[in-house]
Specification:
The protein is of the alpha/beta class and about 325 residues long. It contains 10 helices and 15 strands.
Length: about 325
């Protein structure tokens, strides 16, 4: 039986992790094209931190945080035949994941491979949508190519490493600190570079015989971009995921033109339903079979109770995590 009220996490005002609070909210009702999910776990992501800090929400989006969940479908909205009630799913959301129940578009619910425990499946949607679009569609990564992944110890980074390796690419990865470098080495990257004490430009050029890499997946921005371009091979592709060191850069167009480089970027939340649906179809066709085969798995750093959402945010803001941080909702 579905209750009338549920626990949910909101930020009552902009601020640090301490502004997050657990409240009681009515269980949402699935509208046309939606399903209601009993949440098992919710993924914690940097856009949640931006929302907590006061970034305006898209029109009509709930103030309950959370952009990805795993759980079980318990009710269907009008026009929905599948996934049927009782089906385990992992879903990309516009919001509302930090709660006992959430609604999701049926088209954005991914099936959970049998070998993936349902609580851990919450670590897949955001990473899978991000990596599929940016690494394979925009970055056009091909077997035999070399990719540089910055911030590679993050949830998206560890997922991207596995996806690149599964497609037959060679991975160079950067992260900060000995523990993170050891984790990257355990994932089998070709080169793991500690940003705290090593220059990735020198190491990459030496390792590749001055040729460089074919694709850069960058979440740093700022002065990193010029350094990234210097290690891109002719025809290389630079894909920006974020800009933790700044969104404004100086660009040497002579270098871009001389080497035939391309620079592109994207952000997931504002994309249309049609675009997200197309991405979900690509993920189901190309990435879910790799998860089912055991070639890709979300790396989970820590799972905390829903009531400890503030601590989960602190972990992400301190860059302490190696992999995903999840909130456990259902036991």
């Amino acid at each position: 039986m579905i209750p009338e009220m549920m626990n949910a996490i909101i930020s009552g005002r902009p601020g640090g992790p301490e502004v997050l609070e657990q409240v009681q909210r009515p269980v949402p009702q699935p509208g046309a094209g939606e399903v209601l999910i009993r949440v098992a776990s919710a993924g914690v992501n940097r856009p949640d931190i931006l929302q907590r800090n006061g970034l305006p929400l898209p029109p009509g989006v709930t103030d309950v945080l959370g952009l990805e969940v795993s759980g079980t479908v318990v009710a269907l909205g009008a026009g929905v035949d599948a996934p049927a009630p009782g089906t385990p799913v992992m879903a990309l959301l516009n919001g509302g994941g930090y709660a006992d129940y959430c609604v999701a578009r049926a088209e954005l619910c991914l099936s959970v491979p049998e070998n993936l425990p349902l609580p851990q499946a919450a670590g897949v949607p955001e990473a899978a949508f991000t990596v599929w679009h940016n690494l394979f569609e925009l970055g056009r990564l091909q077997p035999g190519e070399t990719v540089l992944i910055h911030g590679a110890a993050s949830g998206v980074g560890t997922f991207a490493i596995q996806c690149a390796q599964a497609c037959g690419a060679r991975v160079i990865a950067t992260a900060g600190g000995a523990k993170k470098i050891a984790a990257l080495q355990q994932l089998g990257v070709w080169r793991a570079i500690d940003r705290h004490g090593e220059d990735f430009v020198d190491i990459i050029l030496a390792a590749t015989g001055e040729r460089g890499v074919d694709v850069v997946l960058d979440n740093v921005g700022g002065e990193y971009v010029a350094r990234n371009l210097s290690v891109l091979a002719p025809g290389g592709r630079h894909v920006s995921l974020s800009f933790m060191q700044g969104a404004t850069i100086e660009l040497d167009l002579q270098q871009v033109m001389r080497k035939g480089l391309s620079l592109t970027s994207s952000t997931l939340r504002p994309k249309s339903l049609a675009e997200k649906t197309r991405l979900a179809q690509g993920i189901s066709k190309h990435l879910l079979p790799l998860i089912a085969a055991g070639k890709i798995a979300p790396r989970i750093y820590q799972t905390l109770p829903l009531a400890q959402a503030a601590e989960a945010h602190r972990i992400l803001e301190a860059n302490a995590n190696i992999g995903k941080v999840l909130l456990q909702v259902a036991s």
